[in-house]
Amino acid sequence: MKDGQVNFNSFEVLSILGSGAFGRVFKVVKKGTNKVYAMKALKKHNLIVKNQLRYAVTEANVLKQASHPFVLQLHYAFQVKSLEELILKLLDTTTFIFSVGFMSRR
């Protein structure tokens, strides 16, 4: 994880990549660097109501400590009033499809 000065306003949302029961995933760019990431925005209310908050915290802790090619790298994590934000390495489609295809042939 990097400096604590990073927050939601450090990023510009480019597009929505997907959504689920607990929030959405966005393609974002970090202002001033032009580095592209995936932003996983989890709604705290949904996590609490569905008793899933501890799993979200565990996910962030695992991603923070993991160093493996099959685990997305966590670059930043922060909270805003109603959301838990995880900034992750963005896999392009080609890399993902190649990885899945490679693993399915093993």
Helices and strands, with pairings:
Elements: E1 11-19, E2 23-30, E3 35-43, H1 44-49, H2 53-65, E4 74-79, E5 83-89, H3 93-104
Antiparallel strand pairs: 1-2, 2-3, 3-5, 4-5
Please provide a written account of the structure.
- The protein is an alpha+beta fold.
- It has a single domain (8-104), classed as Phosphorylase Kinase, domain 1 (2-Layer Sandwich).
- The protein is 29% helix and 37% strand.
- The protein has helices at residues 44-49, 53-65, 93-104, and strands at 11-19, 23-30, 35-43, 74-79, 83-89.
- It has a five-stranded antiparallel sheet with strand order 1-2-3-5-4.
- The mean pLDDT is 85.
Please give a handful of descriptors for the protein shown.
Phosphorylase Kinase, domain 1, globular, five-stranded antiparallel beta sheet, 106 residues, alpha+beta, single chain
CATH C-level class is Alpha Beta
Largest sheet: 5 strands, antiparallel
Whole-number count of domains: 1
| Cα gyration radius (Å) | 14 Å
Short description:
Helices cover 29% and strands 37% of the residues.
